[in-house]
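User: Reviewer 2 asked us to show a designed sequence for the structure in our supplementary figure. I'm pasting the structure tokens here. Could you produce the per-position amino acids so we can include them in the response letter?
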């Protein structure tokens, strides 16, 4: 199995044989930073706004993952948080956990030829912001869960005590961070005082289907 991200048409025709092969090959259940960066993951217009909103809404602790689905204007449609098991897990198990959460909070888009909604993942962990093998497993899991739920694969964001970082993009910030006091939700979702272009980004995280 080769690494990378299938086109929307290829993703819609993924066979059960492909998935079965992935389940027996641990080396196929991770993505490295270069592979992720080359995959054409859509950029967030305002990653800090997304991170701050999810941090305020879910107040994640270490080993907590927050998966969120955004519409084309980057408004939040649904989100869910869950804690990773303490036992080591690979991309296959993380994919299943993410897919379970997505199925719980939002209908799939498998009937669409091209995905219009995007899933992003915020993962809180100890350590510094450098890529780890666990991050690679989460990347693989997010990519595969999006394919199976008819979504575009969006940003993978880590939250550590140093702050947040969008892996594969180089964009990062010091706040919020793991253990920091969440901003009031109204503040995290308030419009920016400066005008911005590119959609209704000021309304991001204004709606949520599940916590």
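Assistant: Here is a per-position design you can include in the supplement:
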């Amino acid at each position: 199995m080769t690494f990378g991200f299938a086109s929307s048409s290829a993703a819609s025709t993924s066979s059960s044989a492909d998935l079965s092969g992935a389940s027996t090959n641990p080396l196929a259940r991770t993505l490295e930073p270069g592979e992720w960066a080359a995959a054409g993951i859509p950029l967030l217009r305002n990653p800090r706004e997304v991170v701050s909103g999810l941090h305020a809404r879910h107040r994640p602790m270490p080993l907590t993952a927050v998966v969120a689905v955004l519409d084309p204007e980057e408004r939040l449609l649904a989100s869910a948080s869950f804690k990773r098991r303490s036992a080591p897990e690979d991309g296959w198990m993380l994919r299943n956990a993410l897919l379970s959460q997505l199925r719980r909070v939002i209908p799939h888009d498998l009937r669409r030829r091209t995905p219009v909604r995007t899933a992003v993942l915020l993962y809180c962990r100890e350590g510094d912001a450098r890529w780890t093998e666990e991050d690679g497993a989460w990347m693989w899991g997010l990519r595969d869960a999006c394919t199976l739920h008819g979504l575009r694969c969006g940003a993978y964001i880590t939250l550590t005590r140093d702050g947040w970082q969008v892996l594969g993009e180089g964009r990062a910030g010091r706040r919020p961070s793991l253990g920091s006091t969440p901003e009031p939700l109204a503040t995290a979702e308030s419009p920016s005082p400066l005008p911005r272009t590119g959609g209704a980004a000021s309304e991001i995280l204004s709606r949520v289907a599940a916590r």
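For the response letter, you might also mention the following. Strands lie at 64-70, 76-83, 118-124, 152-160, 163-166, 171-173. The mean pLDDT is 80.
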